[in-house]
Predict the 3D structure of the following.
Amino acid sequence: MTERTVQLVLHYDGSGFSGWQRQPGQRTVQGVVEQVLARLCNEPVAALGSGRTDAGVHARGQAVGVRVGPRWEPESLRRAINALLPGDVWVASAWAMQPEFHARYSAVARRYSYYVGTGEEANSPFRRRTEHAVGQPLDRGALDAAAAQLVGEHCFRGFAVQGTAPAHDDHRCVIRDAAWRVSPGGLVFEIEANRFLHHMVRFLVGTMLDVARGRRPLADLSTLLHAADNHHVSPPAPPHALFLDRVEYPRALYLAPA
């Protein structure tokens, strides 16, 4: 064996990063992780994420695929990386994977959550970094009805940034779960799907919040799910309240039980 394939599961506070993807002159999560890996392995090591979180978006389940020398057992690699990472990134777990594992293309599901603060306390400096403070009660029935329409397979052209997917892409996603739930001081929207489009969760949340505040009718959700473009979607909710929670892979790709 000349190299070992490892899945790293990352937590990070996205506040101080210009997103996941490495960019010249910008501090990014991928850039920081690859700098640490290069120090440990004495050569460049690519850190391939399951997806590109935007600037300000957080993660507590970002999956990252790396290929390192055979001397690196997953747990020893995890400890070594954490000893060098800055305080806003942490490797929660590491798994030995089959050589064909790919962090992006092998994924079968991803799960996100979006936090909305409805009370005055959401403006606290201890909460404002990870919650969207709307400062008013929301129509919970409207939110629940809107989320229920999302479950199943739909085309999400109406809820995606135009031009970021290939021209031949059908923009179809299969939503396993989409629901609003109570969280301390507000609500959290949780959604799981086989794939997500650029800004998709934030467009969905922004539109549902407009419905819950009476700014647009519930029927607009169905209209947007059949739209050919995003011209009529609400502005996306801000990125700082969004978390990538989990990425799921087939168990057969793990060399040890996950």
